[in-house]
Amino acid sequence: MIQAKSGFQGVYPMVYALFGPDGRLHREAMQHQLESMIAAGVHGVAVLGLASEANKLSFDERCMLMQWVVEDLRGRRPLAVTVAEPSIDGQIAFVREAAALGAQWVILQPPPVKAVPDLELVRFFGSVADQVPVPVAIQNAPEYLGVGLSAEGLKSLNRQHPNVKILKLETTAIAVRRILDVTEGAYDVFNGRGGIEIIDTLRAGGVGIIPGGESFDWLTRIFDLMSSGDTAKQDQAERLYHELLPMLVFLMDSIDNFLVYGKRVLGHRLGIPETDVRPPLTPPTTFGLSMAKLYADRLGRAP
Questions:
Q1: 163 close to 129: Cβ distance less than 8 angstroms
Q2: Residue 302, in any domain of the structure
Q3: pLDDT grade for 127, boundaries at 50, 70 and 90
Q4: Which domain holds residue 161?
Q5: Where are the beta strands (DSSP E) in the chain?
Q6: Following CA atoms 168, 169, 174, 178 in sequence, which dihedral angle do they give, to the nearest 10 degrees?
Q7: Mean pLDDT over all residues of the chain?
Q8: What is the pLDDT of residues 81-119, one digit of tens each?
Q9: Which residues pair with 14 in a beta bridge?
Q10: Which pLDDT band holds residue 31 (cuts at 50, 70, 90)?
Q11: Tell me, what's the pLDDT at 144?
Q12: 199, 19 Cβ separation under 8 angstroms
């Protein structure tokens, strides 16, 4: 059985930012997406990460999107909010706002400054963690963000600031196991990569995943079967994962690819016609759109 020390585990899909024909965030589409996630039994919800296109949203839009998700959740699932403000004071203020609205935990992204030594990142994250009222996760994903902490740096961060107790990674199951070993199990680890290696991540000691929003029901089912402790159910999880994997590989070629086609998979599954990605983006191809429709049909309508 999977048991997180922080109390947070399972599948926390990162909601997509859904826009209307006018290019603005679409309230009803966001509600539809969230209600479908709840109906599928997700264990929590996340917002304002890469899948939410937070880097393309204004400050007011980020606050509005967070507010909408809080209102629509109505406390039915825990909420994790990604925080990407580039300064210590900015992150503290945003975390406090998220906590006041009802976020149970937050995911801090590093400032967008490359080649930062571990010591400076530990100081940055520690300064935020010491001033906020909720558990803190670190998004340690140099593969996508271009900056991150070493495993030794993560160990130091937790020892100096125990409120930092969760990691959001974008890495292999082997790397998950190494980080858990080096940090002596101090962290609860959620992996990403759209759900690729979900089963091996759990075997490595991870407690969950934070994928995109297009296959949340399948991933939730896989997690529940894997965490049951029943061999027959775990075999069923393997079969479901093998069916899902080709689509995950198709989407995770790059973040841009993931957004352009993942949102369209979700749109087909929810019956939402407007699932465009905010510019700049790599325009979809006719073949890519046909593949998104093919995979959506294979997954079936979302709950």
A1: yes
A2: no
A3: very high
A4: 10-229
A5: 10-11, 45-47, 79-83, 105-108, 136-140, 164-169, 188-191, 208-209
A6: -70
A7: 96
A8: 999 999 999 999 999 999 999 999 999 999 988 888 999
A9: 46
A10: very high
A11: 79
A12: no
Q: Give the pLDDT confidence of 280-297 residue by residue, as tens digits.
A: 999 999 999 999 999 999
Query: Is residue 72 a part of any domain in this protein?
Result: yes
Tokens of 82: 């990604």
Distance, C-alpha 295 to centroid of its chain:
21
Q: Are 211 and 219 in contact (CB under 8 A)?
A: yes
Is 257 part of any domain? no
Asked whether the beta carbons of 45 and 73 are under 8 A apart, the reply is yes
Q: Tokens 């369209």 label which residue? A: 264
Residue 147 pLDDT greater than 90, yes or no? no
- 1-26 confidence digits (pLDDT tens): 788 999 999 999 999 999 999 999 99
Residue 62, both tokens: 């980020």
Q: CA 135, CA 59: separation in Å to the nearest integer?
A: 23
Q: What is the dihedral of CA 275, 280, 285, 288, to 10 degrees?
A: -60
Joined tokens for residue 37: 């996630």
Break the chain down into helix, strand, coil percent, rounded to 5.
50, 10, 35
Neighbouring-strand partners of residue 105: 80
Comparing CA positions, the residue from 279, 275, 281, 40 lying closest to residue 292 is 275
- CA angle (41, 221, 140) in 5-degree steps: 85
Is this prediction's pTM over 0.90? Answer: yes
Q: Please report, for the domain that includes residue 154, its CATH number.
A: 3.20.20.70
Read off the DSSP letter of residue 169: E
Domain contains 238:
no
- Look at the chain and report how many structural domains it folds into: 1
CA-based nearest residue to 19, from 36, 33, 37: 33
Count of beta carbons in the 10 Å neighbourhood of residue 132 = 21
Report the candidate in 191, 190, 121, 189 with the shortest Cα–Cα distance to residue 161. 121
